[in-house]
Amino acid sequence: MGKILHYFGAGPAALPFEVKQRIQKDIIEYEDSKLSILELSHRSEYFSNILDRSKTLLRELYAIPDNYQILFMAGGATLQFDAVPLNFSGKAKYASYLDTGFWSRKAGKLAKKYLDVKFVAGLIDHANEICCLSSSEWQVDAQSAYLHVTPNETINGVEFVGVGNVEVPVVADLTSCMLMQNIDVSKFGVLYAATQKSLGIAGLSVVIIRNDLLGGASQITPDLLRYDLHVENNSIVNTIPVFACYVAMLMLLWVKEQGGISVMVEQAKLRSKLLYDAVDSNSKLINNICKKNRSTINVAFTSNYQGVVTGLLDTAEKEGLIGLQGHRRAGGVRASMYNGTSIDAAKKLARLIRLA
Amino acid sequence: MGKILHYFGAGPAALPFEVKQRIQKDIIEYEDSKLSILELSHRSEYFSNILDRSKTLLRELYAIPDNYQILFMAGGATLQFDAVPLNFSGKAKYASYLDTGFWSRKAGKLAKKYLDVKFVAGLIDHANEICCLSSSEWQVDAQSAYLHVTPNETINGVEFVGVGNVEVPVVADLTSCMLMQNIDVSKFGVLYAATQKSLGIAGLSVVIIRNDLLGGASQITPDLLRYDLHVENNSIVNTIPVFACYVAMLMLLWVKEQGGISVMVEQAKLRSKLLYDAVDSNSKLINNICKKNRSTINVAFTSNYQGVVTGLLDTAEKEGLIGLQGHRRAGGVRASMYNGTSIDAAKKLARLIRLA
Fold first, then answer.
1. CA distances, A349 to each of A155, A180, A275, B73 (Å)
2. HSE of B74 in the Cβ direction (CA atoms, 13 Å)?
3. Of A163, A193, B149, B235, which has fewest CB within 10 angstroms of its CB?
4. What residues form DSSP beta bridges with B172?
5. Contact between B239 and A194 using a beta-carbon 8 Å cutoff
6. From the candidates B22, B80, B196, which should be mutated to test the interface with A, based on the most A CB atoms within 10 A?
7. For the CA atoms of B279, B283, B287, B293, what is the dihedral angle to 10 degrees?
8. Tens digit of pLDDT for each residue in B94-150?
9. Per residue in B165-219, pLDDT tens?
10. What residues contact A241, with CB distance under 8 A and at least 6 apart?
11. Residue-wise over A302-334: b if at least 16 C-beta within 10 A, else e?
């Protein structure tokens, strides 16, 4: 392996080095199972312990109340974009989707196959700055089975924390902010996250659902998308992605060892502040998100000066800072900093941003 | 790690040791990417090469004609049980399912949500032996959009090879016999397989589909279950399970290095013959599948003598042969021998079966 490298990719995300070392060991033999973690049966006691431990850790880290179930499901967030409406549409006709950017719109668009979707404005333009409306300003139709929200939008780097008191159950896509935001679970009906950002690798999602919201699935819901079936079978409806569950457990353990979610939140604030301060200090660079809604996780910016963005990306790559290209729909620069990103990486990048 | 161990689990299955070693190396850095294989972006050139290479290898190994697409999709076979009918039900009303056991019945049962399903008898009782009907005896309704078949049933160990000439497109679940049966792809409309048996780890499926069968998806099909969308996006509809795709590539490479599918088929025949000969030589053991339809992959048997099954399982475990418990629905003994299982493992087990 060459020089030290810092990875700012949007996901699959950087993993802590010690987690990779632990995985490397378990590829040959997991605990005393005499099997590789890759060979472990989803019906073995070893795996049952992995699932139980993951649930206990997540319940502890987020103080998840007893009336919520924790599920592990194959597939990523886009599959949940269909699963969420399918699990409500057996009983419900309407759903609301808070529009805060690309991902929340995509979620709403997919839900239209099953429900009448009403988009709720979530952003406002304040003197050339984009801000999130506060939850008291959301116009939510009371007939909605739920309000879907995306607390962190990765493409433009927009974030809001907390949902206040909404009349209908709130469903949140935490894919890009899981374990990186302080969340009061009791304010939500359903929380879901694909695991490839803060919980390991791609191909798995975690779903947290309040008991009273189970049982509303439409008859056309594929078995592997049914929340109730996952509750009944302790997430083992078929051969679950064993390895992805195991990596999620390691990430949960790692977060606990680091001091829990409040520590993760502080580090995200620290890393992103280093970058935003550098962007704001450089008159050639633009970030037009208002300060209170700048994402602490995905820092996106661009420039109207020719060559500045490509120059910065080139210099960064030479210094071992990679994965910084903006999303293909947005261009510019984007630094995605999940829990595996060190403060040191942010410092190095901040220095280059100041010099750009 | 303790003494040499032989694993006969039904899946996730045993992986060749050299494949595990290669994975172990790539956990820290994949090629010259400076990233772990676990961190690699699904939109990177490295991953694009993994997908291309996997497709080329599979196309070569099975001589897949140009008018078939190869797709990689998140989730296992149970998700495909819903995906198959959903991808036909936009245009079709009827489907036929060949009943050869638990898995084919389950596939048909799930399809009933979307189509009118007709079960076709696939098994017959011949003087206390269970046999598969030959394809010329299948009673397939010509109105069916497709006939679904399961060439290898893992629970009772029933296998048939080849489908002859069926009037409607044949859809086959190859999850448990992928890369272990000689198959003339041109006789099929769709072939699919979850990857945790012969193609690596759980959480991914490979789908091979003839071009003219694309475009029939019903409006209610979740995006991540649409075959046409996967074709349009070269399988990257969202963040695909990168690591599972990489392990599938390693398994395809490994099969090619071993000499290709014909070698895999011969080894499966050899391993299973060792076991069936031992079972037949022991009057205390029962396997009631007729010889031509005994699975070369999953060898299942039981005993009417008290203590024989548990005695054999205990002895086997002491000798390092594990994962031999029959399926929880069938009981008895089951040896699942996918491509990662050595001839030596089968020899050791055959010796114990003779002594049981």
1. 19, 20, 7, 36
2. 31
3. A163
4. B149, B191
5. yes
6. B196
7. 70
8. 999 999 999 999 999 999 999 999 999 999 998 889 999 999 999 999 999 999 999
9. 899 999 999 999 999 999 999 999 999 999 999 999 999 999 999 999 999 999 9
10. A74, A203, A204, B201, B202, B203, B241, B244
11. bbeeeebbeebbeebeebebbbbbbbeebebbb
**Phi, psi torsion values for A173, nearest 5 degrees:** -90, 105
pLDDT for B127 equals 84
Q: Which amino acid is at A238?
A: N
Sign of CA dihedral B239, B226, B254, B14: positive
- Tell me the one-letter amino acid at B234: N
Q: In 3-state terms, what secondary structure has residue A208?
A: strand
The residue behind tokens 């800072």 is A321
Is residue B174 a contact partner of residue B193, using CB atoms and an 8 Å limit?
Answer: yes
CB atoms inside a 10 Å sphere around CB B274: 20
Chain B: closest CA distance from residue A183 (Å): 25
Side-chain-side CA neighbours of B78 within 13 Å: the count stands at: 20
Q: Do B238 and A201 touch (CB under 8 A)?
A: no
- Phi and psi of A222, rounded to 5°? -55, 140
The contacts found for B234-237 with CB under 8 angstroms, 24 or more apart, are B234/B51, B235/B51, B235/B71, B235/B72, B235/B73, B236/B42, B236/B43, B237/A78
Structure-token match 């089951």, residue found = B334
A346 to chain B, closest Cα gap in Å: 18
Q: How far is Cα B309 from Cα B312, in angstroms, rounded to an integer?
A: 5
CA B251 to the chain's CA centroid: 13
How far is residue B207 from each of residues A136, B77, B217, B230, measured CA to CA in Å? 47, 10, 15, 10
- CA dist B254 and B17 (Å) reads 11
Q: Are B82 and B108 in contact, with CB atoms under 8 Å apart?
A: no
Q: Would you call A273 exposed, middle or buried from its count of C-beta atoms within 10 A (0-12, 13-18, 19+)? A: middle
Query: Residue A224 and residue B29: Cβ atoms within 8 Å?
Result: no
Q: Which residue has the higher pLDDT, B47 or B5?
A: B47
Cβ atoms A284, A302 nearer than 8 A? no
- In this predicted complex, what is the ipTM? 0.95
Q: What is the pLDDT of residue B3?
A: 53
Q: What is the pLDDT of residue A11?
A: 80
Which two three-digit tokens encode residue B122? 């696939």
State the pLDDT at residue A5: 83
Is residue A173 part of the annotated active site? The answer reads yes
Q: Mean pLDDT score of chain B, rounded to an integer?
A: 95
Q: Among all chains, which residue has been given the structure tokens 């992928």?
A: B178
- The Cα B254–Cα B354 span in angstroms is 32
Residue B225's closest CA among A321, A82, A128, A198?
Answer: A82
CA quadruple B320, B258, B293, A40: dihedral positive or negative? positive
What distance, in Å, lies between the first and last C-alpha atoms of chain B?
28
Q: Which two tokens stand for residue A82?
A: 């269909």
